[in-house]
Structures are given as structure tokens and as C-alpha cells.
Amino acid sequence: MVFALIPAALLAASAPPKVEYVGGTVQSIPANAVGSLNFDDTRELQFNYSGSVYKLPYEQITNTEITRAELRRVHRIPVPALLPNRWKETLTISYKDATGTTGTVKFVMPTAEALNARQMIADKKAPAGETSATAQDNQWWGDKYWKTNRNKTTWDNQTRQANQSATTVPPGTN
């Protein structure tokens, strides 16, 4: 019996996670459509649902936000799900289309999948040769005190500039 469950578990692990479209400005996607997000294309995010595909170019995405989805309520008492996979988040993707019109799409999915989707979008939006973390996200308070592999180039540039300014000061002008 255990061996019968293993193939089912492997299939569930390899299947793309199901997400639900719960609103936004896109009229072509039916409300509560269930499907999956596809990040395979390097230029556009794809939402596959009921045999249809909604495509959103990464360059048009302006913001992503994750918020807690509403909890199930039992007799007006919020009851969180007991399994980590059951916690749901709403991933809101804001974009500006080719005509300049602002829009949003909102998907409800498990927490881990929402975090992964947000990271994948950031990775796809990052310019070539740059990691997904922006310079602001990459800041750490210790960077100005310690030289690490992560901030080595910044420290090297500061040292180089200090050496150049020290050599350009004429002697005796202190």
C-alpha cells in the first residue's frame, strides 16, 4: 500500500501548483478560473487555465505584492488551516500595458508558491547579468563596516577613489 502512494506523491510534486484568479482588471479571464502560472518563457508570464492562456510581458510588470488570503470562518471564528500547504496568499501583480493603462491581476495560491512566483518575476525582470535582488534589497547594515564577497567591489571602488584623491592633492596644501 505504501508503494501505491509513492507514485501519486511524485506526480503531485511534479505537477505545477494550482492557482486561482480572483480578480483584477483583466476581463478575458473568468472570475475564479483555476490554472497554473508558467515562467518558462523569458519574455512573458503565462497563466494557463481551461485550455486558454493569458500572457503578461515581464517588462510591463510594475509591482508585485503578497497579502494573506482570507481565512476560512467557522461560526464567525477564523480558523487557520493546519497544514503549511493550506495557507493561502494573494499575489497581486500590477502592470502598465503598451497603451499606458494600469492594470492588476490577483491570484490565490499556497504561501510557498506565492513567494516562488514573486521571486521568479523578479528574476525575469532583472537586467541581464544582474541578480534578482535590487541594490536596495541587497543592502545590509554591516556592509559599511565589513568587507565581504558580496560587497567586495564596492569596497574596492572606495579604496581606489580614496587612493586617487590622495595622489591628486598637492603636497603642503593641508
Quick overview:
By secondary structure, the chain is of the alpha+beta class. The chain contains three helices and nine strands.
The ordered H/E elements are HEEEEEEEEEHH
Rg is: 24 Å
Low-pLDDT residue spans? 8-12, 131-136
The helicity comes to 25-40%
Q: In percent, how much strand structure appears in the residues?
A: 25-35%
Main beta-sheet annotation: 7 strands, antiparallel
CATH C-level name of the largest domain: Mainly Beta
CATH architecture of the largest domain: Roll
What oligomeric state do these chains adopt?
single chain
Q: What's the CATH H-level homologous superfamily of the largest domain?
A: Pleckstrin-homology domain (PH domain)/Phosphotyrosine-binding domain (PTB)
Distance between the termini: 85 Å
Number of helices: 3
What is the CATH fold-level name of the largest domain? PH-domain like
Q: Can you tell me the number of structural domains?
A: 2
Structural class: alpha+beta
How many DSSP-defined strands?
9
Tell me, briefly, the overall form.
Answer: elongated
Q: What spatial order of strands do you see in the largest sheet?
A: 4-3-2-1-9-8-5
Q: Mean pLDDT, nearest integer?
A: 77
Overview of this protein structure:
With 174 residues, the protein is of the alpha+beta class. It folds into two domains: 8-138, Pleckstrin-homology domain (PH domain)/Phosphotyrosine-binding domain (PTB) (PH-domain like), CATH 2.30.29.30; 139-174. Helices cover 26% and strands 32% of the residues. It contains three helices and nine strands, in the order αβββββββββαα. The chain has helices spanning 2-14, 111-125, 152-168; strands spanning 19-24, 34-38, 44-49, 52-57, 61-68, 72-74, 77-79, 88-96, 102-110. Strands 4-3-2-1-9-8-5 form a seven-stranded antiparallel sheet, covered by helices on one side. It has a two-stranded antiparallel sheet with strand order 6-7. The protein is elongated and about 75 Å long. Mean pLDDT is 77; it is low at 8-12 and 131-136.
